[in-house]
Amino acid sequence: MPSGFTLPPHGTPMFPNAERYNHSTEYANKLVDRIGQTPAWIALRLGVTEKRMRYILAGSRTIKGDTTEILMSYAEQFCLECLAAEAKAAKDRARSKAAASPASDA
Known about the structure:
- The protein is mainly α.
- It has helices spanning 25-35, 39-46, 50-58, 74-100; strands at residues 60-63, 66-69.
- Strands 1-2 form a two-stranded antiparallel ribbon.
């Protein structure tokens, strides 16, 4: 299992490749940090419940004292990677726009 995934440059199409499956809680949290939105916002876009998103980020759930490991699916991982790539592209666009704007003399 790869330790991580490098997001492609903006404009490069992303294609699913389950050989890159990394279900680790650390990777899920890293992607959520890159996205820069709340888990509730992300869950809505992934089509999962907020509870499912919390379980993915925690790596487990405990019900009546019984703890079960929770792993994100590859489909969930790919969606998170797509959201992270778009968040990075949006930041890059904002930086480029700011750099292209003339500095104000205020």
